[in-house]
Design goal:
Largest sheet: 4 strands, antiparallel
Mean pLDDT: 82
Helix content: 10-25%
Number of helices: 2
Radius of gyration: 23 Å
Length: about 150
């Protein structure tokens, strides 16, 4: 079997913000991914506890579950296609007779699909714009006064 790799794009919230979760205190917040990329930032800082880590360490549990389901469904589809091709090749020369009827169709092969969970935030958020650098982010409603910018140092 061949190696497969695939990038899975995470959808943003309706406002265009990308959910993140602190690996240290598990605070959930969201950032403007375009501003983050344009600023060439490498790390994020938790708006609540100040923990600093690489951007990809701040994925949410829902995003991990979403990526797993999307990837799993892709693999199942690939396996279905591979098995269908193998069966087609194996039985392509076999003719039906009075006793046996041979018919192959890869459309009949179904290994099932996982439901794809929502990777979106399950909390009410408040949008914040950093007064020092202008970076846009969102934190849980009611905590915005005690939050710090995820990119300012």
């Amino acid at each position: 079997m061949r190696d497969m790799s695939r990038s899975i794009d995470l959808p943003t919230e309706e406002e265009g913000l990308l959910p993140r979760e602190c690996p240290h205190c598990e605070t959930v917040f969201a950032i403007n991914p375009e501003m983050f990329e344009e600023g060439h930032y490498l790390n994020l800082r938790c708006p609540k506890c100040g923990w600093i880590a690489e951007f990809d360490k701040f994925h949410t549990a829902d995003q991990v579950e979403y990526a797993h389901s999307v990837g799993s469904n892709d693999v199942r589809q690939q396996v279905e296609e591979e098995i269908g091709d193998m069966l087609e090749d194996a039985f392509s020369g076999v003719k039906s007779s009075d006793y046996i009827e041979v018919e192959t169709s890869e459309d009949d092969l179904d290994l099932g699909r996982e439901d794809i969970p929502s990777p979106h935030l399950k909390i009410e958020t408040e949008d914040v714009t950093c007064s020092d650098c202008g970076f846009e982010y969102a934190v849980e409603r009611g905590t915005e006064e005690n939050s710090s910018c995820p990119v300012c140092r």
